[in-house]
């Protein structure tokens, strides 16, 4: 080869050929499966890049619950992916969206059996598994299909439990016996589970008094390294809190508790049980999410003063009850937690009572509060009062989200006033706040 051809060759060669592996891997990371497969046909180097472990650590597999030609290949492609790249998986999320009939649930169950079997044989890296909103108590899940799916999941967790760190089975809707069997499979190999993050919100079917089940307390006692636990209030009992205190006090940081109007929530929990747990787990923060549980006497039964409440969400879902009043909760109950509250979310229909004064006082009394969101009937000047308090240093909000309900279709007057308030406090808003305020007709 002469000197002239040697000089010409680098200019003719594509710059992609000299691209470093780390850059090429980043390009592949942004491609979908089909584009990755096509790119792998370009050359040997690109084909080798296709099998880079970094590309396949995270995966969300979504199955449509509706019969469709467009989604017909979802089940086959999921199995293909797991067989080819499943050994690299570290974080897996599986979604099955609103199954339409028993034919699709059967197809999903068979696919899951093959998928979990393949993972169990070839994968020893999986750290996180999320299978949410299966709603197995719906009629589309026949007993045999439901039983086979639970069996496959339990068998897989027996193997994966050794390395699994995060498990979410939110919305599974199981019986107490079924739910405990699945959770218990995590501890089969060593007698205890080292899962650090567990999400079992809506894991059990509605109306079940899980708190009265000795089997559930015994199952939860096998978890020894929980950092974060998410569950429903119908699972909370003195026995559960004592077990968490005994086995997880060193690691436990967060408990998220959902309390729904259709879940049993009248059980008696002793304040000393919460106090003991809070004392042993010194970093513990508890977040409550109430759905249509709004009456003061019910809330007071749940929100004991010994609980280190960090976040609180109260949602009535647009339901209005003239006999219900939010005022006692705002003035008597919530100030109990003024030293720990950091996040407050309110969504309620208070058309029958004005609460501006009570809300302003609550915000100013919670000195650690940094997040405040409210959808309610409010005076537009409520926003100005909060911003003035922020400017004067009486509160330290970083997020302020307000939806002001009105009884009129037109909100021109409210919008004009809100624009004036924004102009007046624009410097404060731009420098300190994640700010969203809107007037909304509630007819």
Mean of all residue-level pLDDT scores: 91
What does the oligomeric state look like here? single chain
**Total of DSSP H or I helical runs spanning 4+ residues:** 17
Major sheet details: 13 strands, parallel
Distance N terminus to C terminus?
Answer: 83 Å
Helical residue percent band:
25-40%
Please describe what this structure looks like.
The protein is of the alpha/beta class and 443 residues long. The protein is 40% helix and 18% strand. The chain is built from 17 helices and 13 strands. The protein has helices spanning 3-12, 21-29, 33-39, 44-49, 74-85, 102-122, 143-160, 176-184, 214-220, 238-248, 271-280, 296-302, 327-333, 356-365, 381-391, 412-424, 426-432, and strands at residues 58-64, 91-97, 128-132, 166-168, 197-199, 228-232, 254-260, 285-291, 309-315, 343-347, 371-377, 399-406, 434-441. Helix 15 (381-391) links the parallel strand 11 (371-377) and strand 12. Helix 7 packs parallel to helix 8 (176-184). The radius of gyration is 27 Å and the shape is globular.
What key phrases describe this protein's structure?
443 residues; alpha/beta; 13-stranded parallel β-sheet; 17 helices; 13 strands; globular
């Amino acid at each position: 080869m002469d000197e002239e051809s040697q000089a010409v060759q680098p200019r003719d060669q594509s710059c992609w050929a000299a691209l470093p592996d780390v850059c090429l891997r980043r390009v592949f990371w942004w491609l979908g499966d089909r584009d990755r497969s096509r790119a792998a046909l370009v050359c040997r180097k690109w084909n080798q890049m296709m099998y880079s472990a970094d590309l396949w650590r995270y995966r969300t597999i979504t199955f449509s619950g509706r019969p469709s030609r467009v989604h017909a290949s979802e089940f086959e492609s999921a199995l293909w992916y797991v067989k080819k790249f499943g050994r690299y998986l570290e974080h897996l999320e599986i979604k099955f969206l609103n199954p339409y009939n028993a034919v699709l649930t059967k197809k999903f169950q068979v696919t899951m059996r093959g998928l979990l079997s393949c993972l169990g044989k070839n994968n020893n890296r999986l750290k996180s598994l999320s299978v949410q909103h299966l709603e197995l108590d719906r009629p589309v899940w026949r007993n045999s299909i439901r039983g086979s799916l639970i069996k496959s999941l339990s068998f897989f967790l027996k193997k994966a439990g050794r390395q699994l760190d995060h498990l979410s089975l939110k919305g599974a809707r199981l019986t107490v016996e079924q739910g405990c069997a699945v959770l218990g499979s995590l501890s089969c190999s060593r007698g205890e589970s080292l899962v650090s993050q567990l999400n079992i919100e809506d894991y059990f079917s509605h109306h079940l008094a899980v708190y009265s089940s000795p089997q559930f307390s015994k199952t939860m006692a096998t978890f020894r390294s929980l950092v974060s636990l998410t569950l429903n209030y119908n699972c909370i009992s003195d026995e559960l809190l004592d077990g968490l205190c005994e086995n997880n006090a060193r690691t436990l940081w967060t408990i998220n508790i959902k309390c729904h109007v259709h879940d049993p929530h009248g059980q008696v929990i002793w304040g000393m049980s919460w106090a003991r747990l809070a004392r042993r787990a010194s970093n513990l923060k508890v977040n409550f999410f109430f759905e249509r549980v709004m009456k003061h006497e019910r809330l007071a039964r749940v929100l004991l003063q010994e609980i280190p409440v960090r976040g609180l969400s109260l949602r009535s879902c647009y339901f209005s009850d003239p006999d219900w009043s939010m005022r006692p909760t705002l003035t008597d109950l919530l100030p109990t937690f003024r030293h720990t509250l950091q996040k407050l979310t309110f969504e309620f229909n208070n058309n029958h009572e004005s609460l501006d004064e009570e809300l302003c006082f609550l915000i100013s009394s919670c000195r650690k509060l940094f997040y405040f969101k409210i959808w309610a009937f409010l005076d537009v000047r409520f926003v100005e009062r909060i911003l003035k308090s922020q400017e004067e240093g009486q509160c330290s909000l970083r997020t302020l989200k307000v939806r002001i309900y009105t009884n009129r279709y037109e909100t021109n007057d409210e919008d004009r006033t809100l624009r004036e308030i924004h102009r007046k406090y624009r410097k404060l808003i731009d420098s300190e706040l994640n700010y969203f305020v809107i007037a909304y007709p509630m007819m």
